[in-house]
């Protein structure tokens, strides 16, 4: 017996809402952050938290120095959610127009100018693989990732269709970056972000 497409979508939506309810109930209970992908719930411990947060802070400050006043490099909540896609992510840094932050609920991913991630030591594939799959599916135009373990990073842009769904083209790869975000990554992210009409 085949399942009708509408039934499959309804079941997927029900499963997504159940995962979202679980994630929201765990957010203040367990350390780290929880995200939802099509494969299920991702629990990222972000260890060591102190160094990770310092790197995020430095990168956010550097970005905000060069962006227009109405664009902010936001860290923290709320999440970026694409309920139809069954995905809820919390980027380390969200580049977004301040006016798009108004209102209640999660951020619409299509309002982000860029998402920036500092690779977590506890789950690097989440940033290098999962998010390069999820962010273009959500319509986030620019994704930048910095890996303090290796001193490398990349900026992904140019969402295009593939047989596996929307994907990015690797716009720029950076090497020799220092923890805290190097000038190369800042320049790459700024260049990618500032090709948008906001800049």
Overview of this protein structure:
By secondary structure, the protein is α+β, with helices and mostly antiparallel strands. The chain is built from 4 helices and 10 strands, in the order αββαβββββαβββα. The protein has helices at 5-26, 49-66, 124-138, 183-193; strands spanning 33-37, 40-44, 71-74, 80-82, 87-89, 93-97, 112-118, 143-147, 152-160, 167-174. The strands form 3 sheets. A 6-stranded mixed sheet has the order 3-6-7-8-9-10, sandwiched between helices. It is globular, with a radius of gyration of 17 Å. The protein starts with a helix and ends in a 6-residue tail after the last helix.
Mean pLDDT: 79
Number of helical elements: 4
Poorly predicted tracts of residues:
177-185, 193-199
The major β-sheet equals: 6 strands, mixed
The order of strands across the largest sheet is 3-6-7-8-9-10
